[in-house]
Every structure is written in structure tokens, then in C-alpha cells.
UniProtKB/TrEMBL annotation:
The gene is ssuD. SUPFAM superfamilies: Bacterial luciferase-like. Residues 1-325 form the Luciferase-like domain. It is an enzyme of class 1 (oxidoreductase). GO terms for biological process: alkanesulfonate catabolic process. This is alkanesulfonate monooxygenase. Keywords: Flavoprotein, FMN, Monooxygenase, Oxidoreductase. The keyword Oxidoreductase applies. It comes from Priestia megaterium (strain ATCC 14581 / DSM 32 / CCUG 1817 / JCM 2506 / NBRC 15308 / NCIMB 9376 / NCTC 10342 / NRRL B-14308 / VKM B-512 / Ford 19) (Bacillus megaterium). The keyword Ion transport does not apply. One of its GO terms (molecular function) is alkanesulfonate monooxygenase activity. Belongs to the SsuD family. InterPro entries: Alkanesulphonate_mOase_FMN-dep (IPR019911), Luciferase-like_dom (IPR011251), Luciferase-like_sf (IPR036661), SsuD_RutA_monooxygenase (IPR050172). Its EC number is 1.14.14.5.
């Protein structure tokens, strides 16, 4: 059981859907989080990517120099980055950080954002490009000199001057829920990422991807992205969940849903469908202790595990039994909640973590 946290590079705060209680994620704050994660024993942390986030490569480079063992899950952006240049960046970072790089393949699910980078490809064609990108990237990272002429990517004599520490290259994390995304994930991913849904749904998706990877002659691992709200008692945890969205109103919910309507991401559409557009707790608890309230006012992963330390640990173990071995977690505010989760839940999952 690998436990990763999250760097809030688009800002942080005590509430969703409001600037009240907000917190700027400057380098001083991010260093506090990095120091805390390193000290507490988290295995790594995800740096998000997107039009509202600061650049993940630059921030990770700054934070790697002030940490000792924490790993950094950084985005590779096919269609935005060159496969050759990104391979050099990845190899250099892996060397300079002593093997602490993990890579999150982000094809992109918002056509409006993609256009800002000059990428106007349709959904499925973006995944075709991703396939070409990763084919080149993996060969280059393995020390090959690559000539490749594809429909979207064309390189001649591509290489990197020195190899990464991790062999054959830092692990590739990938989440794509559409048929086109699953095809690329089965072919290239080391860890296939899912966003939080009820365990029965997750099991079906894991079984499906295991079969697709096997058809490619590959074995893959699985990870899940979840928020967590843990308190000493379950009642306190639910009170904190309600407090987190107390400033979210109908106009806020509508604004986010209108924004998501332009996305062509299958995963985002699924997350948006998990809540009923209401703050009613009964409607938002879509499985025992799995709460879809985050998705009312946040894009991306929109569900949280809510409960006491024992309950949340048990829910994590349920996902582990289904085949999940990597958990990418977060909470608001991220500094305090990193400590709360580690202090309250780590003792209950120490046996699972020691099997790494």
C-alpha cells in the first residue's frame, strides 16, 4: 500500500467554492507541505497540471532539493511537450533527485485548455498522439536512438545523453476511462489510475484493464485518487465534510457543471454524474463513507472517504483487496490534513504499508 499526497499548486483553503479562508500556494507554503510529507513518511506526492496550476516541473525541481525521500509524480503532456525534450527532463530529474521521479501521463480532457497550447485534436486523436509520444519516449529512455515518423509525431535521431537512475525508466501513471484511453493505458501504463467510485465499480474497471493489459502481454498495477476527511469520530468527520461545502450554493454548482459540459473527458463526466447537484448528505454518500460532495465545486477527482480512522482505514483496505496498491490522497487544507491523516490512519494501515 503506497500512500501519496497532493500539492495544491492552484491554491488551498478551508472551504470549497469560495475565497473565504483561502490560502496562496506560494513556494514557502509548498515547502512546508513537502517537509511535512517527507517527515511523516508519505511515499510521494502528485503535482497537478492544468490551466489553473503552476508548472509542476518547476515546482517539483524546487521541492526535490529540500526533501530526502519523498517522490514526485509529475505530468507528461503529449501534444504539449516534445517526447525527446520530456525524456531529457525526466532523465535529468531522476538523476538529480536520486531516483525520486514518477510520471503522470495527461492527455487532456478539456478542449478549451488544449487550444491554449495549440492542440486542436479531437478526443480520440489526442490518444493516438499519446500512443506515438509514449512509443518514442519509452525507447529513448531505454537508451535507444530513435527515428520515428508517425501521423502526429516525427523525430530523427532522438536520444538522451545519459540514462535515468530507475530502470528502464521512472514509472508511468496513466488514467484514461474512454475506450481510446484504455487502449493506450493497457499498452503503456505501469500504474493505471482511477478516480474514487464505489468498490463494485472499481472492481469491474480493474478486471477490464487487467484483461486489456494481458492482451498486450503486460501486467499493470492500479492506483486510486481520493480525498479524505478523517476525524477522531465519524460524526466529527461528517460535520467537517458539511463545513467544507458550506459556502457552495446553487449558483456555484451550476457554474462548475456548465464548465464541465465542454469537457470531453469520460472520467470527468463520470465524476460529475456521481452527485445529484445537491448538498444533501444522503444523496452525496454514494457508497458507505464515500462522499461525492467534493465534485460539487472542484474539477477532477470529486469523492472523499469520510469517517473515523478505523473506518477510513477499513475502506482503504477494501480497495486494496480489489487490487489497488497506490492511493493518492488529499484534504483541505492540505498541510494540516496531511498531518491529521498520517497521525490518525497510518497506525491502522502500517502492516499493509510494510509489505512494500
Amino acid at each position: 500500500m503506497n500512500i501519496l499526497w497532493f500539492f495544491p499548486t492552484a491554491g488551498d483553503g478551508h472551504y470549497l467554492g469560495t475565497t473565504e479562508g483561502s490560502r496562496t500556494s506560494d513556494i514557502h507554503y509548498l515547502k512546508q507541505i513537502a517537509h511535512g510529507l517527507d517527515y511523516l513518511g508519505y511515499d510521494g506526492a502528485l503535482l497537478p497540471t492544468g490551466s489553473n496550476c503552476e508548472d509542476s516541473w518547476v515546482i517539483a525541481s524546487a521541492l526535490a532539493s529540500v526533501t530526502n525521500r519523498l517522490k514526485f509524480l509529475i505530468a507528461l503532456r503529449p501534444g504539449v511537450m516534445s517526447p525527446t525534450l520530456s525524456a531529457r527532463m525526466a532523465s535529468t530529474f531522476d538523476q538529480m533527485s536520486n531516483g525520486r521521479l514518477m510520471l503522470n501521463i495527461v492527455t487532456g480532457g478539456d478542449p478549451v485548455e488544449q487550444a491554449t497550447y495549440g492542440n486542436y485534436l479531437s478526443h480520440d486523436k489526442r490518444y493516438e498522439l499519446t500512443d506515438e509520444f509514449l512509443t518514442i519516449w519509452r525507447d529513448v529512455m531505454e537508451g535507444k536512438k530513435v527515428d520515428y515518423k508517425g501521423e502526429y509525431v516525427d523525430v530523427t535521431g532522438a536520444y538522451i545523453p545519459s540514462p535515468p537512475i530507475q530502470k528502464p525508466y521512472p514509472p508511468l501513471y496513466f488514467g484514461g476511462s474512454s475506450p481510446a484511453g484504455k487502449e493506450v493505458g493497457a499498452k503503456h501504463a505501469d500504474v493505471y489510475l482511477l478516480w474514487g467510485e464505489p468498490p463494485a465499480v472499481i472492481k469491474t474497471k480493474i478486471d477490464d484493464m487487467k484483461e486489456k493489459a494481458a492482451n498486450e502481454g503486460r501486467d499493470i498495477r492500479f492506483g486510486i485518487r481520493l480525498h479524505v476527511i478523517v476525524r477522531e469520530s465519524e460524526d466529527e468527520a461528517w460535520e467537517s465534510a458539511d463545513k467544507l461545502i458550506k459556502h457552495v450554493n446553487d449558483d456555484t454548482i451550476k457554474a462548475f457543471q456548465d464548465k464541465f459540459a465542454s469537457f470531453d473527458s469520460t472520467a470527468q463526466k463520470t465524476q460529475s454524474s456521481l452527485h445529484s447537484g445537491t448538498k444533501d448528505r444522503g444523496a452525496l454518500e454514494i457508497a458507505p463513507n464515500l462522499w461525492a460532495g467534493i465534485g460539487l465545486a472542484r474539477e477532477g477527482a470529486g469523492t472523499a472517504l469520510v469517517g473515523s480512522p478505523e473506518i477510513v482505514a477499513d475502506r482503504l483496505k477494501e480497495y486494496k483487496e480489489l487490487g489497488i496498491d497506490t492511493f493518492i490522497l488529499s484534504g483541505y487544507p492540505h498541510l494540516e490534513e496531511a498531518y491529521t491523516f498520517a497521525e490518525l490512519v497510518f497506525p491502522h494501515i502500517q502492516k499493509e504499508r510494510s509489505k512494500r
